[in-house]
Amino acid sequence: MLTLTSVEINAWIAGLLWPLTRILGMIASAPLFGHASVPNQVKLILGVLLALIIAPTVPAVPAVDPMSYAGLLILVQEMLVGAAMGFSMRLVFAAIEYAGELASSTMGFGFASFFDPTTQGRSAAISQFLSMVATMAFLAVNAHLVLLAALSESFISLPISATPISLAAPLELARLGSRIFSAGLQISLPIIAALLITNVALGILTRAAPQLNIFGIGFPITLGVGMLTLSVALPYLNTPIQNLFNEGIEAGRRIPRAAAERVPPALAPQRPVPASQ
Fold first, then answer.
1. 3-state SS class at 17
2. Per DSSP, what are the bridge partners of residue 182?
3. pLDDT, tens digit, for every residue of 33-91?
4. What's the whole-model pTM score?
5. Membrane spanning segments where (predicted)?
6. Cα separation values, 157 from 45, 49, 74, 88, 253, Å
7. Neighbours of 261 (CB within 10 A)
């Protein structure tokens, strides 16, 4: 007769529950996987299937009751690690969407905004267009598979443990978050430069011919120049977008490593040395 103890049952539950929590955290925050159009049932089924594949390769989990206080802390910690890894790639898409916002506002297309189900807000048409282009590039270069591979590797670089994670992990997200503005400006720079030259030319034209209705011809000219520049620059966005994907995936790999770091001995508080008599 097969008999199981409560310790063995808890070990089996924890061996699947804690990896599943990190995987679901990444799925919920990562682009494409966590999109609002993907049903929650599909996300849950995908997370369970990935957990069944990854759980046998995970190092030994701590012998802690999953329903205990320590087990709940591990659950929250795993959720935070997975969400941080997915959010690192989400920041890459935020940089591309920010480039679309800059281009739209510069070419006078900022009024054409639509509801974005991803951010639950309104975004410009150019921003949504670049976001769809980035999504297709994300699938074309198999970045979603590389992201899942990085998630699987995170269980080696940051094993499931009851030890609190290091505060160096949020710093990695902060460093990547600073790239939103610089990367967005770099992607939209061709459109901004072309429209700057166009606006200077329109200003000179207005000074040369004051009777010219600049408001009547300025908007269609800037809009046409912006769309033409976007169509010309679009084939050359492949390399910078792939570089952004690499940065996001590398940041996702660095987050578990940074979370596994401990306080160096030099920075740890030292006990005062008693003065010699």
1. helix
2. none
3. 888 788 889 999 999 999 999 888 888 777 777 788 888 888 888 899 999 999 989 99
4. 0.81
5. 12-32, 44-61, 67-87, 129-151, 180-202, 214-237
6. 26, 22, 16, 17, 9
7. 13
